[in-house]
Amino acid sequence: MLQLSGLQEELNEAKQAMLESEKKLKFKEETAAAAISARDAAIKSLRLADMRASRLGERVEELSRHLEESDTREDSRNGSRQRYVCWPWQWLGLNFVGYHLPETQQQGSNEMELSEPLL
């Protein structure tokens, strides 16, 4: 009888250990399934992002081409119109359209020129 109760207790412990192992295994399977789903979602997201990026790149190229065509047409209509400014003109008190800056700004820029040492 003592032997039988010892075996029964051992059997119950084995059943408990098996139930815990099954729970752990189920948890690992669920975790693996969730990880696979997350990976698949990430792959789909990356593919979508790549597709959008390539479409945006194509759109940027198209808009750049239109801008260049527009600039070319505008330049041919306006002759040799100045579009960009060289920075030294600001020291002379001129802005990009040849308009003189107010006297106070001219004086400040001239003072800066005079204060610089000659090399």
UniProtKB/TrEMBL annotation:
Compositionally biased tracts (Basic and acidic residues): 61-78
Keywords: Coiled coil
Coiled coil feature spans: 4-31
Superkingdom, taxonomy of origin: Eukaryota
Region annotation Disordered: where it falls in the sequence: 61-80
Matches recorded under PANTHER family: OS08G0559800 PROTEIN (PTHR34937), PARAMYOSIN (PTHR34937:SF1)
Name of protein: Paramyosin
